[in-house]
Q: What sequence folds into this?
């Protein structure tokens, strides 16, 4: 095969951030009109490699060829000119603007009247592209009114409007519902059909195997394997990613349940939940299944005091609680790991250590004076426990890979030493090795008598980890099963089917 059959080649790319070498002599090529998957653990270097490709970072060494021609990207604009567009792991749209305004942001079509944009032309061209690709999106809708899946389509529209030929998708499905993800797969296949090259990053092995033609695996900044996907099994990929076999993915747990710890009775809020009642015992892990929009996150928000209860009550360790603000929930011993890391979880411009200790000062007896050495040693110990990859605890959270940011947030709640922990999609964007570590932590917390609620869209995870599984639909509970006595099919059916 001649070089030019490759839409893209990256050769001998190296990149360091201070003492951290994120990429070591990485070489990989993507064939035109294919989906090329990039796999690897959190921090392996996938996003960094793609940021080098899109001109966000300048490589220390190596070169990039597009259609066999060497390219220099000193800034993102140059990569875009060369036909490369990147859909970031964290979406990046102007929320108060419309779809078409975002699509044409910085590249507006001007009208014949000086200094005036041709709004109609921009709307028409956006609509034409939507029709061409069968996207159900109104060009005049505001971004803030769109679902995450639709926002992703807007990012794609931006790329397509700039005539991108290589599109990078960094964990595009990590916050999509199953239906939205299915839709995205159709779009990806349609793009490939039209000769575009897609670089696809995901931690979800099933979709990587189903969608990609070729697959490259990064480990610790190096390409350790690259082949046709059809030549590999999931086990092969995982072995290359983590450098060992992963046995007992869902570690066994044998914990006798204690007294009732948490009781929700008839909860309702203005975010659309009503009549939500359930209990969680000490040592118990209760799962919560449901489709996107079923009210699971809203239930967590109501319990945690983010959204006030309009009805119902909460009993915690035998006492009725009136929680009006998250601080009160934390003070009482309730924690919430939020699903939306970027908006409601991590402060990326603050050090990791601060991200861990912020809600915990009072608990740590550090209300007036911060004991820095105590803070540091705590952070180091907890960082080790969740195996976060950082240069040091004081590194800004923004310097961590997405999955490692999630581990910092988990460490935050381990530090808080709370008695009831709500995990909302805790393994989103987390690699397989780290997932297993999180399941182990959940087991340890259960053994220590903590009560836990695990909200997850991944049924295998709920079945692998939980004692009981609650099912939500349209804002209320429609099922409560002992895990051993039900099946994924039954849970899925109840979550999806109207009564
Ligand atoms: N701006 C930065 N400053 C310092 N270190 C960085 C920066 N960006 C990335 N790194 C480091 O480079 C390494 C690779 O990170 P990268 O984000 O590429 O990982 P990833 O494979 O995309 O992981 P994930 O699956 O968690 O998204 C990590 O050790 C990370 O901490
Ligand atoms: Mg990444």
A:
């Amino acid at each position: 095969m001649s070089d030019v059959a490759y839409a893209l080649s990256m050769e001998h790319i190296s990149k360091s951030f201070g003492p951290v070498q994120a990429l070591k002599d990485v070489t990989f090529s993507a064939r035109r009109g294919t989906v090329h998957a990039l796999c690897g653990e959190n921090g392996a270097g996938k996003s960094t490699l793609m940021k080098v490709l899109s001109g966000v970072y300048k490589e220390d060494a190596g070169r990039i060829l597009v259609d066999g021609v060497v390219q220099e990207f000193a800034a993102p604009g140059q990569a875009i000119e060369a036909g490369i567009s990147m859909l970031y792991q964290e979406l990046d749209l102007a929320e108060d603007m419309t779809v078409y305004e975002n699509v044409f942001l910085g590249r507006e079509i001007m009208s014949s009247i000086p200094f005036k944009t041709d709004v109609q032309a921009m709307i028409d061209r956006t609509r034409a592209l939507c029709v061409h690709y069968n996207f159900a999106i109104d060009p005049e809708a505001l971004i803030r009114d769109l679902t995450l899946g639709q926002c992703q389509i807007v990012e794609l529209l931006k790329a397509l409007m700039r005539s991108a030929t290589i599109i990078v998708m960094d964990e595009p499905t990590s916050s999509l519902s199953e239906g939205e993800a299915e839709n995205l797969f159709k779009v990806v296949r349609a793009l490939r059909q039209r000769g575009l090259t897609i670089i696809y990053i995901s931690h979800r092995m099933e979709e990587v195997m189903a969608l990609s033609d070729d697959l490259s695996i990064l480990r610790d900044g190096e390409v350790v394997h690259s082949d046709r996907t059809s030549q590999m099994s999931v086990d092969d990929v995982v072995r290359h990613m983590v450098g060992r076999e992963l046995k007992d993915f869902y570690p066994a747990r044998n914990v006798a349940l204690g007294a009732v710890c948490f009781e929700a009775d008839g909860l309702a809020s203005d975010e659309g939940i009503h009549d939500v009642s359930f209990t969680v015992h000490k040592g118990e892990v209760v799962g919560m299944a449901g489709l996107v929009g079923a009210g699971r996150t809203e239930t967590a928000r109501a319990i945690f005091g983010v959204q006030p209860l309009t009805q119902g009550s909460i009993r915690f360790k035998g006492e009725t609680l009136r929680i009006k603000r998250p601080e009160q929930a934390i003070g009482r011993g309730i924690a919430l790991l939020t699903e939306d890391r970027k908006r409601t979880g991590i402060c990326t411009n603050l050090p990791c250590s601060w991200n861990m200790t912020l809600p915990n000062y009072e608990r740590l007896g550090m209300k007036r004076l911060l004991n820095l050495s105590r803070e540091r040693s705590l952070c180091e110990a907890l960082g080790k426990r969740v195996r976060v990859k950082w240069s040091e605890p004081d590194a800004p959270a923004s310097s961590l890979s997405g999955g490692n940011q999630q581990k910092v947030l988990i460490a935050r709640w381990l530090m808080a030493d709370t008695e009831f922990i709500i995990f909302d999609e805790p393994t989103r964007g987390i690699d397989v090795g780290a997932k297993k570590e999180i399941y182990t932590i959940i087991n340890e917390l259960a053994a220590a008598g903590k009560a836990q609620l695990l909200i997850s869209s991944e049924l295998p995870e709920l079945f692998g980890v939980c004692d009981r599984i609650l099912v939500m639909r349209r804002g209320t509970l429609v099922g409560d099963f002992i895990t051993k006595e039900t099946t994924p099919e039954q849970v899925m059916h109840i979550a999806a089917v109207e009564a």
User: Anything to note?
Assistant: Residues 341 and 406 are 7 Å apart (CA to CA). The longest strand covers residues 6-17. Residues 178-193 form the longest helix (16 residues). The chain has a mean pLDDT of 89.
